[in-house]
Automatic annotation (TrEMBL):
CDD domains given in the database record: AKR_AKR13C1_2
Keyword Transcription regulation included in the entry's annotation: no
Top-level taxon of the source organism: Bacteria
GO terms, molecular function: oxidoreductase activity
Family annotation (Pfam families): Aldo_ket_red
GO cellular component labels: cytoplasm
Keywords in alphabetical order: Oxidoreductase
Lineage, top ranks: Bacteria, Pseudomonadati, Pseudomonadota, Alphaproteobacteria, Rhodobacterales
Xref: InterPro entries: Aldo-Keto_reductase, NAD(P)_OxRdtase_dom_sf, NADP_OxRdtase_dom, TAT_signal
Protein's name in the database: Aldo/keto reductase
Domain NADP-dependent oxidoreductase as annotated: residue spans: 75-352
Gene3D superfamilies associated with the record: NADP-dependent oxidoreductase domain (3.20.20.100)
PROSITE patterns in the cross-refs: TAT
């Protein structure tokens, strides 16, 4: 372990109490909806609690608003309009990261929501080693100096003085989680960060992190297409009272029915490098879409709405963050909150999902290596 990993004051490796969060929020003059992020308890109708943060039942991921999976560069003004429409129609939870773009998606999000900052909850993430000139990613990094650099850069690009929820994007296998939590705690003391979370970490790291500094939310992939979190991470979050934020809740568009056996992917499309989309695997995996389509007919909904509603039914602290660059898809996603299942229906649907074997890996090999990592001991 380098000296950079040892320079955290041990006093900072303590639990940040709810009272300290409340004090930080008050010092920042947060009012309205944002004031609820410093409190715990029941959420208002149509909203959910992630730990002590009240958010809209669905969030909006902005990962592709600078460049889509199809390598298309959307019109910036169109993306700003989409984000504002999401807010106007009830979404207040917006998910971003420095690596998205890289950097540019934070600028788009900050510009779109600058005049409603106190009415929304912004998340961003640190943890990737990004070349500031080329944007190339050379691995993961979470040493204290890099965390501070990332947060300061994010605040500047977002045009804000605080991040409502800051995630470690991927665990750095060379940096103890104690050092990460200590640095984030310092940033909380400075008012730059209100809450924190982790993404795609190992279960032991999550437990250690939560003991050091209460974790508000975990963000992992979770959908009808990928349910691996049900084995360990989701039950652990429920045990510890940690919110769960599924990314790729529609399986990167798969569960909407937009992908079939005739669909091709650009070589640079993330999905082209996931074996679950290989033709020999995709054919069997499409049974999931057929199931969602059947339930859509029963519910007067769309397959994507059924897929999102099923996730929402997994617990009151589950908040999916589907991303899109199209207004029609945004509104379709938001319609999922109007779809509900009785206990018997949920059991029937989940049982049918259980009977379908999903084939293929969810991510390219390099990404798989970053998932489920356990931080080293101090």
């Amino acid at each position: 372990m380098s000296d950079d990993h040892r320079d955290i004051d041990p006093i900072r490796r303590t639990v940040l109490t709810g009272a300290a969060v409340t004090a930080s929020a008050a010092a920042l003059g947060i009012t309205g909806v944002s004031a609820q992020t410093a409190q715990s308890g029941a959420a208002a109708p149509g909203r959910r609690m992630l730990g002590g943060v009240e958010v809209s039942a669905l969030g909006l991921g902005v990962q592709n608003m600078h460049r889509t999976f199809h390598t298309i560069v959307p019109e910036r003004d169109d993306m700003i309009t989409l984000i504002r429409t999401a807010f106007d129609e009830g979404i207040t939870f917006f998910d971003c990261a420095e690596v998205y773009g890289p950097f540019e998606c934070e600028r788009i999000l900050g510009e779109a929501l600058s005049d409603v900052r106190d009415e929304i909850q912004i998340t961003t993430k640190f943890g990737f080693d990004i070349d500031p000139t080329t944007g190339a990613i050379s691995g993961v990094i979470s040493d204290p100096a890099r965390i501070r650099q990332a947060v300061d850069g994010s605040l500047q690009r977002l045009g804000t003085d605080r991040v409502d929820l800051l995630y470690q994007h991927r665990v750095d296998p060379n940096v103890p989680i104690e050092d990460v939590a200590g640095t984030v705690s310092d940033l909380m003391d400075e008012g730059k960060v209100l809450h924190w979370g982790l993404s795609e970490m190992g279960p032991n790291t999550l437990r250690r992190a939560h003991e050091l500094l209460p974790v508000t939310a975990v963000q992992n992939e979770y959908s009808m297409l990928y349910r691996g979190v049900e084995a360990d991470i989701l039950p652990l979050c429920q045990e510890l009272g940690i919110g769960f934020v599924p990314f790729a809740p529609l399986g990167y568009g798969f569960m909407t029915g937009a992908i079939d056996m005739a669909t091709g992917f650009a070589a640079t499309d993330f999905r082209a490098n996931t074996t679950r989309m290989d033709p020999e695997n995709r054919e069997g995996n499409l049974a999931l879409v057929d199931l969602a389509r059947d339930w859509a007919g029963r519910k007067g909904a769309t397959p994507g709405q059924v897929a999102l509603a099923w996730l929402l039914a997994q617990g009151p602290s589950v908040v999916p963050i589907p991303g899109t660059t199209q207004l029609s898809h945004l509104r379709d996603n938001m319609g999922a909150t109007d779809v509900s299942f009785s206990e018997e229906e949920l059991t029937e649907l989940t049982g049918a999902l259980d009977a379908i074997e999903v084939r293929g890996e969810r991510a390219p090999p390099i990404v798989v290596e970053w998932n489920g990592t356990e931080a080293p001991d101090v």
